[in-house]
């Protein structure tokens, strides 16, 4: 299976911003790059310091059929959104 | 032998603040967000946990009252219901959503390094201070619209014992919580390190409120101190104008605390009085509790690159909240986890105003602040 992780990343940085900017900005970007995301042409990486966003973004974007992983890096969270990984 | 109440009040407030700040940071227990998400994304998972905190506080407060442990009852600084309560709640609801956090949300976010929370705090102090300018006619309006003078709680107004009324509400609330538990569970999936489940935070906050009531004689509240901080600045900067403001001469607090032999009094003026002894350690504790939590997780960071529009929103939201917290009087924490659990009529009216206020705040936030 070809990994999506080699796809070019679109990065958005929402650290320090007001709630719920994190979720709304992410949803807007997911919709904007919907076609490329769905076919694995690109992946979206969100940088956030919002602890709440580690619950809301995976829930909302996961419900849209994407694969979402959350990692911690240097005091904030990296949320990677990509096309659904095949089972 | 403890003879001076401050020997209990000051350390108790600090420790309770530390605990509350730590708990709220770990679970991101943002009350402004709970009300906002109800209108923005129609999600109520976090708001349900606020219901849990209120129901748990009802059980704890009423049990303690029946055991004779709650003195004074109702707690001080609660007035009779008037039009001031729902209007204050309305303005407060809009302000907290625009600020991105309520009066305590702002404190725990500030503790983790948020620039926006600092701006909201500046707005809160400014708004609380500005209230002194409208105090004469606002208090006249509150007096003119007071219902049931001399009565504070719904059971007092109805002439009933609080226990049966609370039992029915706790039963209803409990059934609702059980239904939510069966539907979706209370557990929230979050990848944040050291995440505290919000249901645990809700129960911890109810317990912290009870301990505060038992030791200090009232639940958690912070907002009169914001007026105090502003008053201290105004007295230094424009002493002539400050001397003309009647509000800062008022004494809103005068009560006998549960522990100690002396009465404790205080008001919004700049002195180090009973209000300062109760609230300033609590404020400091919440900020430090969140800082400790954030440092332990290596998440304390200050990000300065924040859109100007959001900075203005935090400042204006804070100002509206500060003004509203004096108009109502008191804040969401005081009313939701203090007044509501004992069915204080001003708190019920405050919440009635808070809901449409949060709706207005959400509309303004998405149209003016976060527009693409």
Strand order of the largest sheet of chain B: 1-2
CATH topology of chain A: Translation Initiation Factor IF3
Strand tally of chain B: 2
Q: N-to-C terminal Cα separation of chain A, in Å?
A: 10 Å
Number of helices of chain A: 3
Q: Bin the strand percentage of chain B.
A: under 5%
**Nearest-angstrom radius of gyration of chain B?**
20 Å
CATH class category of chain A: Alpha Beta
Quick one: which chains have the greatest interface?
A: A-B, 25 and 39 residues
Q: In sequence order, what are the helices and strands of chain B, one letter per element? A: HHHHHHHHHHHEEHHHH
The count of domains of chain A is 1
Please tell me what the overall shape of chain A is: globular
CATH superfamily of chain A: TusA-like domain
The fraction of residues assigned to DSSP E strands of chain A is: 25-35%
The CATH architecture of chain A would be 2-Layer Sandwich
Taking the sheet with the most strands of chain B, its summary is: 2 strands, antiparallel
| Helix content class of chain B | 55-70%
Tell me the span between the first and last alpha carbons of chain B: 62 Å
Tally the beta strands of chain A. Answer: 4
Oligomer: heterodimer
| Unreliable stretches covering 5 or more consecutive residues of chain A | none
